[in-house]
Known about the structure:
Elements: E1 33-34, E2 40-42, H1 48-61, E3 64-68, H2 74-88, H3 92-96, E4 107-111, E5 125-130, H4 134-137, H5 148-173, H6 180-185, E6 189-197, E7 209-212, E8 218-223, E9 230-234, E10 237-240, E11 248-252, H7 254-259, E12 269-271, E13 279-287, E14 293-294, E15 312-313, H8 314-322
Parallel strand pairs: 1-10, 2-3
Antiparallel strand pairs: 3-11, 4-5, 5-6, 6-13, 7-12, 8-11, 8-13, 9-10, 9-12, 14-15
Helix pairs in contact: 1-5, 2-5
Bound molecules: 2-oxoglutaric acid.
Amino acid sequence: xxxxxxxxxxxxxxxxxxxxxxxxxxxxxxxxxxxxxxxxxxxxxxxxxxxxxxxxxxxxxxxxxxxxxxxxxxxxxxxxxxxxxxxxxxxxxxxxxxxxxxxxxxxxxxxxxxxxxxxxxxxxxxxxxxxxxxxxxxxxxxxxxxxxxxxxxxxxxxxxxxxxxxxxxxxxxxxxxxxxxxxxxxxxxxxxxxxxxxxxxxxxxxxxxxxxxxxxxxxxxxxxxxxxxxxxxxxxxxxxxxxxxxxxxxxxxxxxxxxxxxxxxxxxxxxxxxxxxxxxxxxxxxxxxxxxxxxxxxxxxxxxxxxxxxxxxxxxxxxxxxxxxxxxxxxxxxxxx
Length: 337
Ligand SMILES: O=C(O)CCC(=O)C(=O)O
């Protein structure tokens, strides 16, 4: 590759060597199934008990679901998608000013996943932002496109409200008080990954992001409506989650798997790339505060197996997560009792 990022305007006719996965790790796109019954939860439904029941079903059987009537205004979503795509169209020199492969930076443009650690790279550029508290981080965000800060901050505020509402519903679906998850997670951080996957000359040889689970508590994903690419792993098969209009995809992260004592799954998911078209996705991550003690709710450990995972702080978990490759075994396995 001639530049540090993929969004350089160069259209590759062959996949550079460093992105080619060994045969056994390739996505086998012909074996992927369409997921026709992705749980869709209507948050506008007046029957609250039904919403809680649907969320509980989706969390224990899928580890992800989509939400509609989520109260994030349509224009906030549309503006976010537009400004994200304008960002990746900026001149290369402008973008390279904020390039970094240091995962500890709170604002950076980067490529692949963890350039320093991984052997094979992924066909993705991403802008990573810390978003909470907004007044701490907003000054370091890009000032180009000119409306970037205004639009992205509105989006972050709305998505945070949605995330908290979902955490309450998830607590209730576990039979816990509705503020349980928020109380355990403390003052939650919020991060964003604006993912840009350029057209890829050989999508069957590489990934946008290989299979992984999210290390945080809850992920709220906005998918490009025009180009599919998200796949989730269920019952031994990869399923394609096609974008649904006006919906967000909600992924449970590793911390909710631990808090639920393994009842709910932090789902394996991956992004594949497209030969002809670029794709974008915007992931918002709600993260426990660093010193939150992740410990399963007592009523959930009363069965024979007791607590599945040992107690740990989020800071300890996050450090471990970034010290590894994305596609290794589930990081939670390292915290089992
Ligand atoms: O692009 C996607 O659909 C998935 C993105 C994702 O998994 C992530 O940013 O962690």
